[in-house]
Amino acid sequence: MHARLLIDGEWVEADGGGRFDVCDPATGATVGSAAAGSEVDVRRAVDAAAAALPGWRATAAVDRSKILRRAAAVVRERAEQIAATMTAEQGKPLAESRGEVEYAASFFDWFAGEAERAYGQVVPAMNAANRVLVLPQPVGVAAAITPWNFPAALVARKLAPAMAAGCTSIVKPAEATPLTAAALLAAVTDAGTPPGVANLVTLADPRPFSAAIFADQRVRKVSFTGSTEVGKHLIRMSADQVKRVSLELGGHAPYVVFADADLDQAVDGIMASKFRNAGQTCVCANRVYVQRPVYEQVLAMLATRTAALTVGRGTEPGVEIGPLIDAKAVEKVDAHVRDAVDKGARLLAGGTRLTDGAFAEGSFYAPTVLDGISPEMRIWTEETFGPVAGVTAFDSEEEAIRLANDSVYGLSAYFHTRDYARLLRVAEQLEYGVVGANTGIISAANVPFGGMKESGYGREGGSLGIDEYLEHKYVLVADVSQTRR
């Protein structure tokens, strides 16, 4: 598997001819390579996107919609190939990769419809001589910076609304997972997307990409998914040109289980949220709060379920937990666990690196449950990004809300209750952009996804997702014949 750059509809090598290796985190083996782009290549991609913008912007919405629907169809036709590529370079179980490919395709379907529904407005004027129009128009050239944990879905979640709005794009995938992005962009191109509308630049070092796009006034929009630290840096870079930025940053999701909850449903939700993609998601449960009357019961159920999870290479049948992305990720997870245990947490499952036999060359960590986490522990405030569930008890609804909101992050939160009055109260009081009530799965193409506080701003998906790529222009039309009377 070898990826090249996609610039102006052509697959080309990097300007300097360099390449970098892509490795399987389950084995450490090289599975392919990608073109090592440079700032020169980024500028070439911006040139292509800027040249393609007038034609794509003028393309009728219904025609943009047809291309997006074809893109969804081609992605689905190539689902096995894309999923296999994803598992090879990212490590997640093949079943999860297949699910992600379908999720990616759903964004092209959804925004095909949104392209046809990007309505303007006729606003009642202040006097009879005037007419007031509000016209939605594409922002312009957009840059998408995507992470490694969902290398197909998060490219689609940015590229599809940009295309629907009439914007052209330059996509920069994560250094660890360029091959999946290339496979997805190949599907989009083969669906009939005009040259220059969707460009791909892979780089071994992301810094030249940021330098080029933030210096170029033709790039009017940057969408980034990644760490809060990097997001803050991009905000500062955007200030010089007041460039439009949308950010989906770190999370530290609380998962609250009230005593009146359906406990089987609650534990199912925790497992689904916490251990999907080996806990390497921005929306996974990090702090599990369980009301005291059912605490021991939920803890025992969670520990039993966690200890039974099957860990291994994502290509192996029945595997539920794949490797972490690299050795550095394993170090962080282990540091969080050791810190918690040293400060009084009780280890109920896992808590060890997996290094023997088939695990010897990979980045594996045993799915872990910690009982009795507390505020002085790193896991209480830091995003672990691994298969570790920290659990503690609470007594009242007020305490649960206070604990859940006690974070600089505000991306996602979850809770379980059978009390529908409580359901509304808690949902309204949680300071998070995405809330799951009686469920641990919250992602879909037709909903607005994004965070509050230091988890970023802007929304991806849903009817609001296309607005991130549109300017709304107010036009006042005066009736000359009326004003002359």
Automatic annotation (TrEMBL):
Keywords: Oxidoreductase. GO terms for biological process: gamma-aminobutyric acid catabolic process. Gene3D superfamilies: Aldehyde Dehydrogenase, Chain A, domain 1, Aldehyde Dehydrogenase, Chain A, domain 2. Residues 11-475 form the Aldehyde dehydrogenase domain. The keyword Oxidoreductase applies. The keyword NADP does not apply. InterPro entries: Ald_DH/histidinol_DH (IPR016161), Ald_DH_C (IPR016163), Ald_DH_CS_CYS (IPR016160), Ald_DH_N (IPR016162), Aldehyde_DH_dom (IPR015590), Aldehyde_DH_Superfamily (IPR050740). It comes from the Bacteria. Belongs to the aldehyde dehydrogenase family. This is NAD-dependent succinate-semialdehyde dehydrogenase. It comes from Phytohabitans flavus. The lineage of its organism: Bacteria, Bacillati, Actinomycetota, Actinomycetes, Micromonosporales.
